[in-house]
Amino acid sequence: xxxxxxxxxxxxxxxxxxxxxxxxxxxxxxxxxxxxxxxxxxxxxxxxxxxxxxxxxxxxxxxxxxxxxxxxxxxxxxxxxxxxxxxxxxxxxxxxxxxxxxxxxxxxxxxxxxxxxxxxxxxxxxxxxxxxxxxxxxxxxxxxxxxxxxxxxxxxxxxxxxxxxxxxxxxxxxxxxxxxxxxxxxxxxxxxxxxxxxxxxxxxxxxxxxxxxxxxxxxxxxxxxxxxxxxxxxxxxxxxxxxxxxxxxxxxxxxxxxxxxxxxxxxxxxxxxxxxxxxxxxxxxxxxxxxxxxxxxxxxxxxxxxxxxxxxxxxxxxxxxxxxxxxxxxxxxxxxxxxxxxxxxxxxxxxx
Length: 352
Description:
This protein is of the alpha+beta class. The protein has helices spanning 5-19, 35-45, 50-63, 67-72, 75-82, 89-104, 113-117, 124-134, 144-153, 163-172, 182-195, 214-217, 314-318, 327-330, 337-344, 348-351, and strands at 235-245, 250-255, 266-267, 274-276, 288-292, 297-306, 322-326. Helix 5 packs across helix 6.
């Protein structure tokens, strides 16, 4: 037995009124959501946990209170503040989108789903989230939490990621005009998945849908959603160069290319990242840095070089692609996580 769409939504809204999460980007009851806040949080939350995003969201909002403020800033400044959050294409698109909204929409995000899709960095999910949460319009907002709720409630047997499409179809059954609380309903499903219908050890006894949940009735809640086996990601190796000038007390840094992984971020120069056999177990070493990206892992071997007239990368320095940074200032550089690890491994005799 499953609930009608109307009753399903009402049970979720009743639960949400009692158990909603308080998040810095979320409007309080009876308040109107700020589209800028919703957009900024949704971009940050892609592939990133709520806990990790909170501090970044508040930092960005303090530095750029409005979308116009962000549009007037430089892309480099935004990427520097984004350092550590990962997936740097999001930061680049954040700036591009802010400029389009400020320049072409007079600082107001469009409320139409199709118009939102035209903005840089906004795909179907983010457009649906802004449409529903910011503008209280019907939209099928399906993130990982909602996929899990639907997989269990409807007993979707197709392994994810293939089963994600079916979960989205099932979620669409509950979208319509109904009571008009579209923003609250979308967030209720997210909160249920985050706090109750959790990936592991779901708290089914506290779930408002447990009486009609297929998985719960069959004791399958710990088995669904099923997931297809993943292939082992490739491993890459490279050398990271610590080029220092002992006479001036400076270290050479670069800003990575504007396209590709870690684009436009501050970094220590490296050789090309080439695929290599992955070690059976990563050995701890004072000369190696290990890092895991979404699609591959990487080992950087540290190589320390004293600068002279013909040191490696001297041509790039002459072309202005690298710059010297004093030891007093290097601690203030906004490195991405990979190069933060490199910085922490710099020998004391260089830093002193």
